[in-house]
Amino acid sequence: MQAFLTIAVRAARKAGDFIIRESDKIRSVQSKSQHDYVTNVDKAAEQIIIDTISHSYADHAFLGEESGRQGDSEYQWVIDPIDGTTNFIRKVPHWAISIACKYQGKTEVGVVYDPVREELFTAVRGRGAQFNGKRIRVSNTNGLEHALLATGFPFRNPEILDKYLNIFGKLFPECSDMRRAGSAALDLAYVAAGRLDGFWEFGLSEWDTAAGALLVKEAGGMVSDIAGNPNYQDSDSIIAANPKAFKAMLKAINQK
Length: 256
Ligand code: IPD
Ligand code: CA
Ligand code: CA
Ligand code: CA
Hints:
single chain, binds D-MYO-inositol-1-phosphate, globular, alpha+beta
């Protein structure tokens, strides 16, 4: 799996260099669906990632946010070329490239790369998580009183706003503060690195979370849906946190 990590990092760095170079010359911004934008840079960056990986692994399959499913293989690469496209378009320097490699449905390798800050978060299943080559662990914050949490607003799903606000109303008064920075992949990477104690959001897709969820788990954290079911991919929600904050988040959410 180390070889897969090397290729994933190579692809993320290539795409990162490209996106930075192109960031002042975005040629087109399209709406894919309500509030979901894509630029020519997202599409080209995804192609760079796919080409880089295919060069080494010609028979692997892909699931990319912008190009969908390609190929059929036990190995599948799950790619978000720019996680935080709205930030990218508005020149808010907070977005990342997210690449995961799955084998027989299990995430084996995860890379989240922030080329603006040159911050690289990596994980290999069973081998821990790293930040710029150094081992990372989730925070040790106990409970919620001193916990810094992050979330994403349901800006594409107004129909779940009430459900979202209900949970916000349970967590927010209990924690120290809540962030909404605009990149789920970075939110998860920051939980892995102990910068945040926990994260929760509704309506994310596999490309948003596959790499970041592995980072959190390999850094000693927990990931589930908001009901506590570890198969968060089968639901419309995700919670990721250090084990103590995780327990406290679930408790707060489930109280009447
Ligand atoms: C989005 C970001 C954002 C989250 C959205 C995602 P995109 O990804 O991760 O933080 O709230 O739900 O879709 O569309 O910029 O790749
Ligand atoms: Ca998008
Ligand atoms: Ca995304
Ligand atoms: Ca994206």
